[in-house]
Design brief:
alpha/beta; three-stranded antiparallel sheet; Rossmann fold; transferase; five-stranded parallel sheet; EC 2.4.2.9; PRTase-like; globular; 3 helices; about 30% strand
Length: about 180
């Protein structure tokens, strides 16, 4: 299988630092801001971001995990049922600035579903999207990230693989690989 490195551990760290400074610039004192990691993979990004943001700013921003499985428009169209993940939000988002955090923006379906799912916790004042990787030219919905680590041009036959050392990989890294063809 052919792999092409998109971001290495150092570059990911630099991007997370940049995200923190952008958030500080755009959200002043964070009094009215919350962060939501999209389950399952956005949670890994959120955990790192939240820790680094607290180190840089000295502020602990309210954060949680959001599962949008049952809000997806393709939920009933799959051969194998999707498995839901935990939603962990112990605050209301009514009139808050919400930053949705995910690893890869592909078709836009997860981000759209997340916007539907978060309404159960209140009506936000504003919603922003933060992603490590934006797979340009692949959108099914007109969704664009407000914070983007790297834009990549990919084909439908390719997959963006995000590897975290915490999940057993040697180092944090993001790769573009060819999807396996089943014969």
């Amino acid at each position: 299988m052919q792999k092409r490195l998109v971001l290495d551990q150092k570059q990911i760290s630099i991007i997370l630092d940049r995200f923190c400074y952008q958030l500080i610039e755009n959200h002043d004192d964070f009094d009215n801001t919350v962060l939501l990691g999209l389950q399952p993979r956005g949670v890994m990004v959120l955990d790192r971001l939240e820790k680094r943001l607290e180190e840089i700013s000295g502020v602990k921003v309210p954060s949680g995990y959001l599962d949008a499985t049952f809000h997806r428009d393709d939920f009933r169209r799959r051969n194998i049922p999707l498995k839901a993940n935990e939603t962990k939000i112990d605050f209301l988002i009514e009139n808050k600035n919400v930053v949705l955090v995910d690893d890869v923006l592909f078709k836009g379906r997860s981000a759209r579903a997340a916007m539907d799912a978060m309404i159960a916790f209140g009506r936000p004042r504003k919603v922003e999207l933060m992603v490590l990787i934006d797979r340009k030219y692949t959108r099914d919905y007109p969704i664009k990230p407000d914070y983007c680590g790297r834009e990549v041009n990919t084909l439908e036959s390719q997959y963006v693989s995000v590897e975290w050392a915490l999940n057993g990989f040697e180092k944090d890294a993001i790769w573009i690989t060819e999807k396996e063809v089943k014969s």
